Amino acid sequence: MINIHEKTLQDIEFHAVLQQIAELCITDLGRIEVLEIKPFTTKELVVQSLQYTNEYVSSFYNDNRIPNHGFEPITKEVKLLKIENSYLETKSFKKIASITLTISDILKFLKKFEEYYPSLHKLSMSLEVVTHLVTEIDAIIDRFGDVKDNASDTLYQLRKAINSVRGKINQSFASALNTYHNLDYLDDIRESVVENKRVLAVKAMYRRKVKGSIMGSSKTGSIVYIQPEQTFQYARELNNLEFDESEEVDKILRNLTEYVRPYTSLLEQYQFFLVRLDVIYAKAKYAQSINAILPQINDEKIYEAKDAYHPLLFVSNKAEGKKTFPQSIYLNPENRIIVISGPNAGGKSITLKTIGLLQVMLQSGMLVPVHEKSNICLFDRIISDIGDNQSIENHLSTYSYRLKQMNYFLRKCNKNTLFLIDEFGTGSDPELGGALAETFLEEFYHREAFGIITTHYSNLKVLANELPYMQNANMMFDEKSLEPMFKLILGQAGSSFTFEVAQKNGIPYSLINRAKKKIERGKVRFDATIAKLQKERSKLEKTERSLKENEKKKQSEADKLEEINAKVQKKLENYQELYDSNQRLIYLGQKFNDVSEKYFENKRKRELMAELFKLVQIENSKRKKVSAKQKRAEKAKEQQVKKEAEKKVAVIRQKKKAAKKKQIKVEKPKPILKVGDRVRMHDGRAVGSIDSIEKGKAIVNYGIFTTNVNLDLLELVETKKN
Hints:
Radius of gyration: 49 Å
CATH class of the largest domain: Alpha Beta
Structural class: alpha/beta
Shape: extended
CATH architecture of the largest domain: 3-Layer(aba) Sandwich
C-alpha cells in the first residue's frame, strides 16, 4: 500500500506541477480533476496510468492522432434525469447527442488502432455505444436547437395553423392600413409596434372612427395606437394556437426525456471517461513539453535516475532561454543512503527536490524527464523535511519542529521508504545536533531505508565513509572562480569552502586567519583535504570530458574514412567489371575481323560458318545459365556503371574545354591602316609601304614591285612617321 504524506507534496512543490498540467486540459472538469491528483496507492494502478500517458504521448508522433475529446459538461442533465418526472430542454439534448457522438468516434478509433493503444482501448471497452440516442434526438431537434415541425402530427398541424393565422394577421392589417390611409385617418408614420404587435398610428381626432383595440398613445397625445378589430381577433386565435404548440412541445420533450432516462448511468460513464481522457491528454502534453519519458520500472529496489531534470526549473529556464543542469542519482540495496555536502547555493536542495518530485510524479502516473536508460523502483512511502519549518502557529522553533519530524520518521521508516532531509541536524548546537543527527542516520541505515540528505556536518560525512551501504556525494564547484557547477559527484564528500567563499566575498584575510586559529587544527586540515580532493576531481572531470570529446571526433573521422574507402572500393570493382567486359568485346571484334578477312580472300562459306560457330560455342561455354530476371538486373547494373563512367568523362571533357577557353588569348583590336604605313601579309615576311587605299584594298609597294591586297590580310609593322 503506497502512502505519501501531504507535507512531502508541499515540500517538493508537487501542486505547482499539477497547476501547469491543469492549464493544458481542454475541459473545466479536466482541470478540476488534475488539481486533485494524488499518488496512486498500488503499483498496478501506477503502471497502468503510466501506460495510458505513454500511449497518448506516442499519438503526437504518428499519423494516427486520437480524435478530439472536447465536450460540454452534462452534469446538470444527469442530475435532472435522476429526478422522476423531470424533463430536459432542447440544448441539453444537443449536448447529450454531441457527447455520444464524441464517445462513438473515440471508441471506433481505439478499436481500429488497438495495436497502437492497447491500454487506452482496454480502458474504453466497458463503454457501450448507443448511437440510436443521437438518431432519436436528431429526429426531434434540429441543428439550431429547436423542436422540428414533424416531431409529431399534432405539432405539424398546429404550426401549419399558426403560419396560416399569421398570414391572415398580416393580410388584415395591410387591408386596414390601406383603408384608413386612403381616408387620411393615419399619421405620417402610418404604423408602429406596441407590446410586440403591429398597430395603426391614428390621428387623435379620428380615433372613434377606427374600429379596434386602443393599445396606447404618443407622449404629445396627437397619435393613438390602435390594433384593427379583425387583426385583434386573429391575434387571439394565434395566442391560443401558440399555447397549444407550447403544450405539445413540452409533451414531446417529456417523451424524449423518458426515452433517454434509462441511459443516465451510461451518460455519466461517458462524461467520466472523457474527463479521464482529458487528464491523460494533459499529462501527455506536459510530458512532451519537458521531454519526459517512461523509464524502466523494477521491483529490485534499484534506483538509477540518469540525467534527471527538475520539471519546474526546466520550464522556467526554458522560458528565459537559460540552461538547466541535470543530475544523476544511483541507489540500490548495496548503496542505500547518499550524504550530499558542499557549500550553500551549490544546488544541494534542488537535487533533493528533483528526486522527490520526479518520484511522486512517476507514482502519480506522469512521465518524467530522465535519460531513456534510467531504471527506477517505486516506494511505499516518501517522507521529507525540506526548507525552513519554523511554525509560528504552534510556537515551535525550527529545531523543535525537526525533532517532531524525526520522531515521525522513526515511526514510519522501513526498507520500502525513501526519506529526503535538507540540512540534516541543523537548528541546535553544532556538536550536540551533529551527534543526534548521526544517531538518527544510523537508525535509518539499520532499518534498511533509502534516502538522500544534505549536510555540513563533518561527522555525518565520516559516517557515510565508514558504513558500507552509505555513500558521500558533493556538488561540484569551480576551483578557481568558486562558482557552482550544479553537478553531483558520487563517492566523495564536499568541502563547505567556508574560508574560500568568505575570502572571495571580500572578508579581510587577517580575520579569516584568526577564525582558522579559533577552531581545531584537525578540522581545518580535514576540510582543506576535502577541498583539495574536490579540486583534483574537478580537473580530472575536465580532462576526462576533453579525452572523450577527442575520442568521439577520432571515431567519427575513422567512420567517415571507412565509408569513403568502401565507396571507392565499390567503384573500382564496377570499373573493373566494365573494363573486362569491354576487353572481351574488343577481343571478339578482332576475331570476327580475322574471320571476315580470311573469307574475303578465299570465299569459302563452309569454312566461314565453321569458324563463326566455333567462336560462338567458345563464348557460350564461358556463360552461366541465368534467369531472365537476373539478366535484366545485370544489364541494368552495366547500364548504371556505363552512365556513371560517361558522366565522369563528360565532366572531365567539360573541364578541359573550359581550360582551353581560358588559354585562348583575347584578340587585340586591329589597328586602322593608313597611306605610308609599313605593313606585311599575315603569312609573309616581306615588308612594304602602302601607296594608296581604296574600297577595302591597298596597293603595297615592295620597292621592286607593287601588289593589290585586301586590308584584312595585312598586319601593321610600323606607322608612318610625320
